[in-house]
User: Fold this.
Amino acid sequence: MSTPDLDPEVVATPEPGAVETPPKESATRSRPLPARVWAQTQGKVGVVLTAAVVLVALAGPLLAPWLTGYSPTEFADRPFQSTGVFGTDNLGRSVGARFLAGGLLLLAYSVLATALGLVVGCTIGMIGGYAGGRTDSVIMRLNDIVLAFPQLVLALLAIVVLGPHGWVLVTVIGLTHAPRIARVARAATLGVVSEDYIRAAEMYAVPRTRILAREVLPNITGPLSVEAGLRLTYSIGAIASLSFLGLGMQPPAADWGLMINENRIALSVQPWGVILPVLAIAVLTIGTNLLADAVARATESTTVEAS
Amino acid sequence: MVKLILKRLLVSVFILLAVSVVVFAATLLLPGDPARAILGQQATEERLAALRTEMHLDRSPVERYLLWLGGLFVGNFGTSTTTGGPVAGLLSERIGASLILMLCAAAIAVPVGVAIGIYSALHRGTRRDQAVTWSTLTLAALPEFVIGIVLVTLFATSVFRVLPAVTMSPPGQQVWEIPSQLILPTLTLALVVIPYIIRMMRATMAEVMDSGFVEMARLKGVPERQVILRHAFPHAIGPVAQVIAIQLAWLAGGVVVVEYLFRYPGLGQALIDAVAFRDVQVVQAVSIIIAAVYVLVNLVADVVGILANPKLRSAS
Assistant:
């Protein structure tokens, strides 16, 4: 689950010299962010890997009965046989069908959790950074309390009290991301508040909420999109880990994390039940992480050009 | 500087108190009667009442919180709802097992991460450096249980069968008496932490190697090896120390999944079992221990950061 929690800078900041020579400035200046991400090897590989797994996760549930002949919860044979392409799992269900059906919820929950974290974290961070003073310090201290828990421990605490429901997973993962995102949003906001256009808006007596939404937010999307990619990677890891621990998605649901847990006792006899979901989770998280890294490099080049 | 450290210490104490409130509040939210959970459905009213008084369930929430908090300081972590025994006894031997695991992982991850980071920084822009960058990006993305499963497949079940896939210590024997079963869990934790140390070390070292004093040393004719070890490295290690400490703090939470994966008899395994049985007292105790370790190591990280920052040093 929670991959080590770090300043996003350490994880995703481009390091000088690591990139192949940056594209010519004149070529990048006017290009939109997606194009600049695609221009990098990391970006291309990231997009391809992520898209492949997302495609499997989205189309899989529909294709599973048609491709394998079994539904994800239907018994195909005795346990751990090599029926069909990938054999059967611990209860004799088709591994292929369960693999195809097992990514959708993981993906949906991770995206929802990341979105929740972004909305809450962004709001808190921007208010803290813009308001400053006491509001800022109160918000940041509350942040520190949430940050004092390893993410997984807080998630387990929530699950023991509220039970392993989908909304609990999404809420607790999202809310534990929020303070981490808030720190990034706050730092980015601090870099923007002293700009002339903010002061101009203040002089025109534009309401503060409107300043935040219309002046600050559009100018901090760079660091926020890097953070979003990173948090998505961690959300996928976190939710898959909880399912692996038996505390996320509950049986008989088909889910990659749960599949690994169910089938790992037979790893040496019938490895497909473990290998397929492990590969899928690995490729997905590597893809999103490469994407986050590419976005970081792309946004970095804009800030350099802007200054 | 001392003032800054003291202030940071005070903040940590407050955070720990707040953490304890959050953890305690979790029990209050829980439906059901813990006394009945321990004694079972057939328990008589008198026995229930007696146990409730013993567990202070008849007091107000604030009183219960203070009693619980006071108990923590004298090592009284409450009564387990599953076993009916004291939580402290259940956890005491597991804390050692978890600490061993964390220390082994740290002992491997820190030198390896620092060494590869420096190597990568010194070969900046080359193929070898790019290979390191790609591997760290890949490894940093993987959840720890994925790394663990891959290691198990490689070394325990499918490819080479050289190491045990799970921990199986006979009762009464400590885990570290069979060192081979420590290898895979340690390796898993180390592999999760190493990429972050590498990236930070590489970035800092690269920056330092570009600085004026390194160029000066080279111009003086100092041998390159000495430039790296005597001039550049001491400057780079300050900021990296903080990242290393944050990573070690992460290990406190990271052991949970890894212990479950390898059936390692540590705190994390106890936590997962307790969550599965809804044994709140144990969950509370383990969460507060893990959070305490986490806060403590983060405190050390910040103090190291303060000590390593020359600007703050001269200010006092």
